[in-house]
Amino acid sequence: MEPLSGQDDPQRVEAQAAQAGHRPTEINALLGRGTRFEGKLYFEGRVRLDGDFQGEIRGDDVLVIGDGARVGGDILVGACIVTGGEVSASIRARTAIELYAPSKVTGALHAPAIFIDRGVQFDGTCKMAPLDEADTRTSKEATPPPSTPAPPTPASPAPPAGGE
């Protein structure tokens, strides 16, 4: 047998993906129906929400919001796929947002590619453009550190002390 030239062995590619921690279509975490969570979710890999979530979601990979889900808050992910449920959130994605029927989505969408299927109920704003650097920072990073006021400069002298 000849070695593969210019192509990877499929078994080797799968083994490398498994060593990296996840396969592209494997779901790493699931919030199932009947489950409620409030707070902050940071993730790697693919995450699926079918329960109730209220809060902040951050990740570099794919977030899937499924049937029966009720999600509210602020979402910043690699890609967001809404296949059902109700979402009331600001959704920002680095690659794409996909909304499929029978989803109900309220809020602001921002991604380089946005797909809204026939039958989706959408109420909000939609911006189809790459995210700015400021858009991709987490809320903690986006908050500037506290600063002290600058001393007066020669262009803006301090008022005279005599109250003329």
UniProtKB/TrEMBL annotation:
Q: Which domain of life is it from?
A: Bacteria
Q: For the region Disordered, what residue ranges are annotated?
A: 1-21, 129-164
- Biased composition range(s): Pro residues: 143-164
Task: Write out the similarity annotation.
Answer: Belongs to the bactofilin family.
- Protein name according to UniProt: Polymer-forming cytoskeletal protein
